[in-house]
Amino acid sequence: MSDSLPDRRYRFGVFEADAVTGELRRQGMRVRLNAQPFQVLSMLLERPGEVLTREEISRQLWPDGTFVDYEHGVNSAVNRIREALGDAASNPRFVETLARRGYRFVAPVERIAPSETVSDAVSSEEQTAVAETKARSRILATPEELPKISHPVVQTLFLLLQLMYLGFYVGALANLAEIEDLFSVLPRASQAFALLVLTAAVLIPVRAFVLCAVLFHAPRAGEKLLKLWRFLLPLDVLWSLSPFLLLHHMSFGLALSCTALLVYSPFAQRSLVLMGAGGAEHEISAVLQK
């Protein structure tokens, strides 16, 4: 790389990049990024707000005389950067594409002074160790641990799960006589029946809210959905027993198998929210840190 400064570290958002060691970190945890994409990222960070042409980038990546399809190579490197940062070309928060011109880093960038670099070296290592320890002991997934999937796919899967639950609630309320007959053998049949009716009636508008929030891209939808998930979790686990409401139409074994799958459903919903079903990553990260 052309710059010969002894220390070049940059901070942008929740990320830090060290051009000397070639490391990208997110809140102290290292993010995997190969050498060439990191070199492109360093060039963009060195000139935030300025347009870097593909020709400029290719001259840095491949010396004269190297035969390479530089258009494909540069595009591939930028795509790897976006994957590492959780960015998207359609709605860039960090790397913007300018058609037929090149790329520009659009987020504010802070250059970390050499003195701060030295004083932060030990604390950074300590933060990384603590963060990695927490990650190993954590049961629920974080956004960094989930695969990068296109937003339409994530949104479609999330909406289908909401429609599934709506089907459970409406189907149960439409067959109360049959369900009451099933519940008659239970020790506290009347209380169980009342709980079913009450939760179904309450959860129908809740699911309608969730559907509308995701379909119409409501502001801070991801943050709201993660908070709502804590309330919905016990109810979703309870409604995972809904296949047993169809015992007049299916075997006990099939109902048990369906219930086992449905127990995972609320955790799948949470993962889909973290993958972008309901909002921007920085909003979701703020909720997870609380």
Helices and strands, with pairings:
Blueprint: E1 9-12, E2 15-18, E3 23-26, E4 29-31, H1 35-46, E5 51-53, H2 54-61, H3 70-85, E6 95-98, E7 102-105, E8 110-112, H4 114-137, H5 151-174, H6 176-183, H7 189-215, H8 221-239, H9 252-277, H10 281-288
Antiparallel strand pairs: 1-2, 1-8, 2-3, 3-4, 5-7, 6-7
Characterize the structure shown:
- It is built from ten helices and eight strands.
- Helix 5 packs antiparallel against helix 7.
- It has two domains: 129 residues, Orthogonal Bundle (Arc Repressor Mutant, subunit A); 146 residues.
- It is elongated.
- The N terminus is likely disordered.
- By secondary structure, the chain is of the alpha+beta class.
- Strands 4-3-2-1-8 form a five-stranded antiparallel beta sheet, with helices on both faces. Strands 5-7-6 form a three-stranded antiparallel beta sheet.
